[in-house]
Structures are given as C-alpha cells and as structure tokens.
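Good morning C.,

I know you're traveling, so I'll keep this short. The sequence:
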Amino acid sequence: MNKSKQGNGIIAMSFIVAIMLTALPLPDWAVNWRPAWVAIVLIYWCLAVPDRIGIFIAWFLGLLLDVQQGSILGQNALGMILIALLTINSHQQMRAYPLLQQAVLVCFYLLFYKLIMFLISVYVGVDTSDWTYWMPAITSMLLWPWLFIILRDVRRKHRIS
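The tokens, ready to paste straight into the viewer:
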C-alpha cells in the first residue's frame, strides 16, 4: 500500500467520531461544557502528521461543523483554520512538551478559537454573555492527555506517519 495513503481511513474515522460526539445530545446545563471534540482531534493530527493534515482539512471540518450547528457558514471554518495554523507552526516545539504542558497549550488554542467565535457572534448580534461559553477550552484541556494517548496508540498500531 502507498505509504502516503496508509491510515487515511483511520484519520477520517477519528474525525467522524469527533463530529458524532459533537452532535451527541446533552442536557441543557451541560451543553456549554461539551469539549471541542473536532478541534482537539484536529490539533492531534496536525501535531502528529502536519504534512498530511492541514488547512484544507481544517476548513472542510469547520464547514461541516457550521452545517451541523446551524452557525454562520464559514464561522467554524475560520476558527479551525486558525487552530490548524497555530498547531502546524508550533508542532515541533509542542511535540517536545510533556502532556500536561501540551494540555495547557491546547487550552490557549481553544480559548483563541472561542474568542473568534465570540467576536463573530457579537458582530451578528447573538448573545453569548454566559461565562460557561468559555468552558469547552477547560474540558478539552482536561481530556487532552487521554485523547493524545488513545490517538497515539491508534496511530502507532496502524503505522500512520
């Protein structure tokens, strides 16, 4: 099998699972605490294989999220592109960090993503003044070490490089 094509199905499946977890219904009190599944899976793959997962994939995933969530077309796409750019530009340094330090960096990336979403929402007149709006960055940070370990083991098992 062509080495560049090896593992594309596994990578695509991880994004599909992330989109499904994003669509999973939650009680009203927990909606704002939902981790940014697609964003953290995107961060992982941009960190692990930056030559294969990049801006176009981030844009496509963002458009899928826009359609899924009924948000302004391009809003999540812009945020995902910025996350991919940040991750790809710092992937060599980020790989050297311990998992807890990576988790803090993931939190900052997601706070930046949520800030972009917030500014677009304010511009179009949507009220997002609840403090829990920022919580996906925290919950994603807490999940990062486990997600990293799981996806790393999957990547190693299927020899994705």
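Safe travels,
E.
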